[in-house]
Design goal:
heterodimer; A: 500 residues; mainly alpha; Ribonucleotide Reductase, subunit A; two-stranded antiparallel sheet; globular; B: 120 residues; alpha+beta; Ubiquitin-like (UB roll); five-stranded mixed β-sheet; 21% strand
């Protein structure tokens, strides 16, 4: 007799909720030891609504089909020398930043969701988190494969994983995820599931993917399309998490609000690299960072928070500061990378005259007044054969680990600096937002591995900077770093294109 | 609450204790309203360093690339040490004038408005 085929409803029940069991001789608290220390109250896991009624067998089948198509396109891209179709070799620097700064976060997201997928007491949430963990693991793999073709032809992609653990500016994304992963499971879900995947994903993932589309990078664009259905699921999970926590107990509101405030601030600081990528690194621009912020945060995020107001949730703390900073951060971040271009694993460059005009047009209130003079100065220096690379090492923020490059919004000429003393030691911050986060949990952030201080402690080799760059960071000095002008990347491109 | 941890009395390891810097202090220097330098700069310095050596070696190393650096009138420069007004004593050591580990020293040069008078 043929085995009876299960209907969808039965299959779903058997492969999700039915996987749970009651504890007869062990204490349930010992099985889920992470459930209580954050202070969140879960009264009834059965109230968890599965945001996507997917079972593992369907998941494998669907993903396998998607990836078969994806890899067929990667093969075609590679066989047809797809790298020659990008808009300009400067574009590849955005790919280098993505591979070293963002792809390893997919792996960290996998580790985080796998952990949470074990530690949540409710089986529905566990299954949803496990599937997201698998998505994230697939994403890091497919991203590496999508970009591996560029590694054959361009510098700066060969040590992305090593560099993620060591290079000064990569400590920013790395420590962001370590902060989330070392929190409890519920904070992690609000941090990554809600704040990052739901509120901010359109400002990270979408700009890189549409940047790829506008600049002829078919490999990355195809990855983006392939991941889209997964991302939609992640967003749904993020929203379900928030609603579930808030509906479980009224005491959860201040805790959830605190996490939203924290992770919104952490997220926007992290997005400074996306801001500069959009405004400076893409030869063919998609839209300005300011426009992206207005569309995806102020409009879309604004209506989300209006929706959440019925639970008592308000707009994230300091969103009025960020609204002003949208006029400034991309310029400040790219200037920082440009002036530290001797210590970056990708090439930096002065915007073309056309690009400078585009920036003036997109930022009428700030660009000509504050930022064009920086580039005029850089151009003057470059014309004299003195391309400007700044000396020394910058002061870093204890929380976000970004050089303290942000300025006061009531005086954009002056760097914003805050500090606090904890147990007799002084700590420095780029903003009130980062200072508040430290003060809420100083015992966590005293452990920040600040690259500048680590260098001075002698933990990164050296003392010569070139030794730190080449031996500790594994930057191929003279090829991966320095200006785009005169780089081996540029030289090879001109040869391929017959424009040498 | 100093931390939300699984176990009570969790203590983090302070990564940047002064003992970790081989006898040096970390001191940050910032030139206000001169954005050519994206942030203040960090230097490891022995606590016995006289301030005159800061003037002679550290500040030119940190900010000498700026065309206005050589024009600074140090008599009118306004100093802040950890947000408090400060008058550096040239012959005194860092330590003896209250500059401790991870101190931030800022100076303002009121006559100098930066490249193109734009705070650069």
């Amino acid at each position: 007799m043929a085995a009876k085929k299960l209907n969808i409803k039965d299959k779903y029940r058997l492969l999700t909720r039915d996987l749970d069991w009651d504890f007869s001789y062990e204490d349930r608290k010992d099985a889920f030891p992470y459930e209580e220390f954050e202070g969140l109250k879960i009264t009834d896991w059965d109230k968890w609504e599965d945001p996507f009624r997917l079972t593992m067998d369907t998941y494998w089948k669907y993903q396998a089909e998607k990836e078969k198509k994806l890899y067929a396109i990667f093969d075609a891209f590679s066989q047809n020398d797809g790298h020659l179709n990008v808009s300009d070799p400067r574009y590849v620097n955005a790919i280098k930043l993505f591979l070293t700064g963002v792809s390893p976060l997919e792996y960290q997201a996998y580790q985080g969701f796998a952990h949470v997928g074990r530690q949540c007491g409710g089986v529905g949430a566990r299954v949803a988190c496990q599937m997201q963990a698998l998505d994230e693991l697939r994403h890091v793999q497919t991203q590496i494969h999508a970009m591996s073709h560029y590694n054959k032809f361009f510098d700066g992609l060969q040590e992305f994983s090593h560099q993620h653990d060591r290079v000064w500016y990569l400590s920013v994304p790395k420590s962001f995820f370590l902060d989330a992963r070392s929190a409890g499971p519920f904070e992690f879900m609000v941090a990554i599931g809600f704040s990052f995947e739901y509120v901010l994903t359109n400002l990270l993932f979408v700009p890189f993917m549409s940047g790829a589309a506008h600049n002829g990078d078919m490999a990355t664009v195809t990855f983006g399309f392939s991941a889209q259905s997964d991302e939609a699921r992640h967003m749904t999970l993020g929203l379900e998490v928030i609603k579930f926590f808030l509906e479980q107990h009224e005491d959860n509101l201040p805790i959830v609000q605190k996490w939203i405030d924290k992770w919104f601030w952490r997220g926007t600081r992290l997005l400074s690299i996306v801001a500069m990528m959009m405004d400076y690194m893409l030869p063919n621009k998609v839209m300005s960072w300011k426009e992206a912020w207005e569309v995806y945060f102020e409009d879309a995020g604004g209506s989300l928070f209006k929706d959440l107001a019925r639970y008592g949730i308000r707009m994230p703390k300091y969103s009025e500061v960020i609204e002003k900073e949208k006029e400034h951060v991309s310029h400040q971040a790219w200037w920082t990378f440009y002036t530290h271009g001797h210590a970056t694993g990708f090439h930096t460059f002065i915007p073309s005259d056309e690009e400078l005009d585009w920036l003036s047009e997109k930022y009428p209130d700030t660009f000509d007044k504050y930022y064009r003079p920086l580039w005029e100065m850089a151009k003057e220096k470059e014309a004299k054969g003195e391309r400007f690379y700044t000396t020394g090492l910058p002061q870093l923020c204890q929380t976000c680990q970004i050089p303290m490059l942000f300025t006061e919004m009531d005086n954009p000429n002056q760097n914003s600096m805050r500090d606090t003393v904890y147990k007799g030691e002084r700590y420095h911050f780029c903003s009130d937002g980062c200072c508040d986060i430290f003060e809420e949990e100083p015992e966590k952030y005293v452990q920040s591995w600040l690259p500048v201080h680590q260098i001075f402690q002698g933990n990164c080799g050296g003392p010569e900077m070139t030794d730190i760059l080449s031996e500790y960071y594994k930057i191929n000095v003279g090829a991966d770093n320095m200006d785009m002008k005169g780089s081996p990347d540029e030289e090879r491109w001109n040869k391929w294109k017959g424009t040498a | 609450m100093p931390v939300y941890a699984l176990k009570p009395n969790y203590k983090g390891e302070r990564m940047d204790r002064v003992e970790n810097f081989g006898g040096n202090l970390i001191v940050y220097f910032g030139w206000d309203e001169h954005r050519m330098f994206c942030a203040a700069k960090a230097f490891p310095l022995p606590p016995s360093t006289p301030f005159a050596a800061v003037m002679e070696n550290v500040l030119p190393e940190a900010f000498g690339q700026h065309p206005e650096f050589s024009q600074i009138n140090w008599d009118t420069a306004e100093w802040l040490l950890n947000n408090e007004p400060f008058k550096p004593q040239m012959n005194a050591t860092l330590e003896s004038q209250g500059i401790d580990h991870k101190s931030l020293i800022r100076f303002k040069t009121p006559e100098l408005k930066g490249y193109a008078s734009a705070g650069v």
